[in-house]
Amino acid sequence: MIEALYESNCPDLKLVARGKVRDLYEVDAESLLFVATDRISAYDVIMKSAVAGKGKILTQISQFWFSFLQPVVQNHLITANIDEMPAIVQQYRDQLQGRSLLVKKVEVLPIEAIVRGYITGSGWKEYEKQGTVCDMALPEGLRESQKLPRVLFTPSTKAEYGDHDENIHPDKCAEIIGEERAHEMARVAQELYSKAAEYALGKGIIIADTKFEFGVDKQGNLMLIDEVLTPDSSRFWPTASYKVGRTQESYDKQYLRDYLTSIDFDMQTPIDLPPTVLDNTLKKYIEAYVKLTGNRPDLS
Questions:
Q1: Do residues 132 and 249 touch, judged by C-beta distance below 8 A?
Q2: What confidence tier does 1 reach under pLDDT thresholds 50, 70, 90?
Q3: CA 101 → CA 4, 86, 209, distances in Å?
Q4: Less Cβ around it within 10 Å: N or C end of the chain?
């Protein structure tokens, strides 16, 4: 039985932040340590329960995509092998093995680079009301879960914990990070999505939408950071059951979201989750990893 890691504890490392899932430590002047815990969140609320092994799967999925997408843009990964990390990190091997990334320090851009290939979720709700997604007009007559006429870059601001991310028009993104950088971010995010979506489709998975995060290194280069195309940052749908006009089955957190909807979750209060929800959520993560990579995740 895998023991869940709800929160890491590395006292000799400087804790920079605890996010919804990741704990972030400073290792030295040039590098940070990302630790993927087994916490799970939905609607920007961290649940009281953890999905044992989830952080290890997220880390391995990100490793896969960092490698696959390297030709498109540089990324911040130094190593995911704890044996290659500094001794100050290795002393916490029991906690960190298989769920940690040693990464380069960069200036993080304050934008969530959301890319949508299909209309679903908050985009569908907005379209139903006013025919737009992030205030961008779309053709009439689209149906739920339909493939969009073009891949959309629909950024959002990064919220502090406890607040909700705010969807913004791409023009607003340019106001925040500058026009040139915003155009580069949009272009790269759409290229990353398109390359990944084409690959995943061949493996029986539709990537409906996803969220990328970017930073800038000391030389001014755009870099892909944080997690990449995981079930926490994306909607993965099985092609076998895909049907336009309805909500789709998924390999991602939608299972948890659907459960929370069924109990009229208030979208504010952390709650304990039933073992069946935890187990079935983990199964979805494992299925996604196996389909995408052809391998079983290492949960040891």
A1: no
A2: low
A3: 18, 12, 24
A4: N
